[in-house]
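I am still learning, so would you mind making up any protein sequence you like and the tokens describing how it folds?
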Amino acid sequence: MVDIPTGEAEIKKYNEYFVNVNPDQDDKATEIRLCSFKRPHMRAFHCSWMGFFTAFFIWFAIAPLLPEIKDTLGISKQDVWTSNICSVAGTIFMRFINGPLCDKYGARLLMGILLMCASIPCALTGLVNSAASLSILRFFIGLGGSTFVCCQFWTSRMFTKEVAGTANALVGGWGNLGGGVTQLIMGSVLFPLFKTGMTAEQAWRTVCIVPAVVGFCLGGLIMCISDDAPKGNYAEMKKNGTMPEISAAASFRSGAMNINTWILFVQYACCFGVELTMNNAAASYFKTKFDLTTESAAAIASIFGWMNLFARGIGGFVSDKFNAKMGMRGRLWWQTVLLVLEGVMVFIFANSESLAGAIVIMVVFSTLVQSAEGSTYGIVPYVNPPVTGSIAGVVGAGGNCGAVGFGLGFRQMETKDAFYLMAGCILGSGILSLFICIKGHAGLVTGKDSEEAIAAWKKTGAAAPQQTLTVPEPDAEAADDVEAEGDKAVAVEAEGGEDKASEE
């Protein structure tokens, strides 16, 4: 690491990187080295998924405990689903504003602050005494779910567009893995452990302190050990003049006025929104339908989240591979196929009558859901690169809006009918890929890639010229003219001096 004084041509926080980078894309990495924790690229990569993972741990810590909470407080199924809806509604507004704030301040600070703030209501879970207080508490805990925007923006800031699909999918998937791990740790490990020395009510009232402490500590750590961008933190870059000041309002306006943003919003509602709904519903669904214990139902429900270990990464990786072969059209076809297959699997899951069959179908269903999430964020960085943060925020909010809509369906309808509604919406969202048209790129069946886009995905284009300061070569003829003019001036001066002397 070197300190370079303000005003020099190239100002960077680091004089060397530990991954290959593209200088034409602001020193973003062109590769992902999973076993490295070096700053700035891979440190940000690992901090982004660990932060989002912990946010999920906080966000859904209550979900596997809901059957116990329902019995203790004497609340209805509708009350439980109201709290589920509040838990995902709380983060919608924050996801909308987090995008522009990431563009302006960077993802590092926002990630840390949101984790620390969401940890406080999580630690207060034991004070819940009614359906209303449960819903209010889960609303404020849900604000931590907006760290997803920070997670996706951070990797888009650190990695080139050609590998952003894989990078975004990996950090998003490993972060979402927190949903499955939470079901297992809270419902099948910590809750039974706490219950050995106290009553079931005392156990659920105290166990949520664990994720709260973890989240608060990690939030502070992330702010101290990572960087906003390859060349340093935003505050330093603005001070040094290597980054312009950005208007959060203008960034949001530019992202929100793009129709592609809203199509991806709907499609993300039909994959991430489905995952959030399953995180809230799976444990209760298996316990009720197959008459299981809380611990067993939570363990089975956790399988849905565990698919994030690889599924979302595969979605982004395959999207990048199709992009390398077919450009944007390849990404769009992959996205469409995943959504259609996902909708079909929801129909089948809703009609599964055996426990083993339901588990197998859920594994396939979950894999498609999370692959579609990874595929979606393989497209996001292309929509309008200068305002990627705002677009990521709007699309991310779509996931929570979808969860609210599907949650209302499960609250008001019979479970099977709610699954049918969900499946129909997913199939419809797949058709919307026909209307995605990104400037300079081919659509699903129409249009064609620009020469620049083809050169980028085929990797045949020449590198853009570097903006460097050059010293001009001396012009011999101009130098002779200047010298002659100088001699003439000296002669005139000398003649004027002689005249003056004679007069005296």
